[in-house]
């Protein structure tokens, strides 16, 4: 390999190959290290644990060779290091992932996608064109004014539902995740489509399109985990899981298009004679073009379900485990419905300790020199944010749930600003960061306010265990109890 720098030896730049990390076997790469009981790393339940093991073994720059058709990865544990790479990659950031979805949209169902590949999988100028169009519709709108009343109604329905389900023996222990995703889908649909889907109705059957969307979103994550984080054999022949994934993507597309078409009919019936600032997300998107509207609404109905569901579950868990914080938050809500400062601090703190995505990722589009090593073009640079966010080195009393750290003055050792700003990135980084952030925050804030007003949340069980399958999730059972506030 030739380094791009003629002065490399003089400047003491080490080649990429010399970065410490897991050794590789021909063809199989480092996969043998993960075999339970035999491998040096073994199977880890979640990415945070894996990050810790690799950090303790190899230090702050760790390489994992690519396997089959997958790119090599490097995990950077110093925020200054990935800050350097992410910033200089931020003109047209590349974030690979969901490669089977990419295949589905660009090859298998190319005619259906109409050359529009959405935000989650598009790259390069195609991503930028799409993002520029939807940014305006999603980020520049008066969310609270437009959607707070509908989201409050949904939150009220959900709280009533939880109270009812609580009476049903241990139903919630095994099905809390399903119930919270019914609420998150109902909420994101009211924002994305301007309509209620009926997810919170008692009679929601397995073949209802809303139920299909929830199931598909979970299956897509589960299958992506199997197909993309383990050797990518599907690139050589259509494996059973690959075929299952293509069927699931068909089902998800059909169910979402059904809802989008219904929303479009309703808008046309109502007419377009309303103020620009009162236009809903779907109206703004339809004004751009039908294909963009369909793809963006489809992505919202996928990306807005499990993410918001998990973030809300974690916040409830933290509030249940820290009754003093829950009481303070409830008092705050009673005092002023409008002021959400403490609630926002609770959400930030919860996302610090329990990230939805345990790490961030950028694929290099050029060469970099980081910490004395050469990182060539085409390498996946991982920022292990969840692991870093729990390190005492970065946060004072790092493993405690202390929302105050987001509110105290600079002089306080707890002050969040004492930590490098790249350590905690729950919504990602820069121009490619989460487009649904404000929507997610609004949904969660409204629901928590509504719930805590008359419900006390406790967790009656051992501390939760987190499992990573692309996103993080809780290992069942859920031990929440919801009781009226005395
Ligand atoms: C608490 C809830 C959520 C969390 C923690 C979250 C987190 C993230 C993260 C970490 C990324 C990657 C950003 C990057 O690479 O820099 C992302 C991207 C994205 N998210 Fe979210 N998200 C949430 C909710 C939502 C919602 C409600 C929607 C839809 C309305 C959404 C739609 C998207 C889309 C479309 C992308 C791809 C953006 C792009 O590549 O341009 N997310 N999200």
Automatic annotation (TrEMBL):
<dbReference type="InterPro" id="IPR036396">
    <property type="entry name" value="Cyt_P450_sf"/>
</dbReference>
<dbReference type="InterPro" id="IPR002401">
    <property type="entry name" value="Cyt_P450_E_grp-I"/>
</dbReference>
<protein>
    <recommendedName>
        <fullName>Cytochrome P450</fullName>
    </recommendedName>
</protein>
<keyword id="KW-0479">Metal-binding</keyword>
<dbReference type="InterPro" id="IPR001128">
    <property type="entry name" value="Cyt_P450"/>
</dbReference>
<dbReference type="GO" id="GO:0004497">
    <property type="term" value="F:monooxygenase activity"/>
</dbReference>
<feature type="binding site" description="axial binding residue">
    <location>
        <position position="434"/>
    </location>
    <ligand>
        <name>heme</name>
    </ligand>
</feature>
<dbReference type="InterPro" id="IPR050479">
    <property type="entry name" value="CYP11_CYP27_families"/>
</dbReference>
<dbReference type="GO" id="GO:0016705">
    <property type="term" value="F:oxidoreductase activity, acting on paired donors, with incorporation or reduction of molecular oxygen"/>
</dbReference>
<dbReference type="Pfam" id="PF00067">
    <property type="entry name" value="p450"/>
</dbReference>
<comment type="similarity">
    <text>Belongs to the cytochrome P450 family.</text>
</comment>
<dbReference type="GO" id="GO:0020037">
    <property type="term" value="F:heme binding"/>
</dbReference>
<keyword id="KW-0349">Heme</keyword>
<dbReference type="InterPro" id="IPR017972">
    <property type="entry name" value="Cyt_P450_CS"/>
</dbReference>
<keyword id="KW-0560">Oxidoreductase</keyword>
<keyword id="KW-0503">Monooxygenase</keyword>
<dbReference type="GO" id="GO:0005506">
    <property type="term" value="F:iron ion binding"/>
</dbReference>
<keyword id="KW-0408">Iron</keyword>
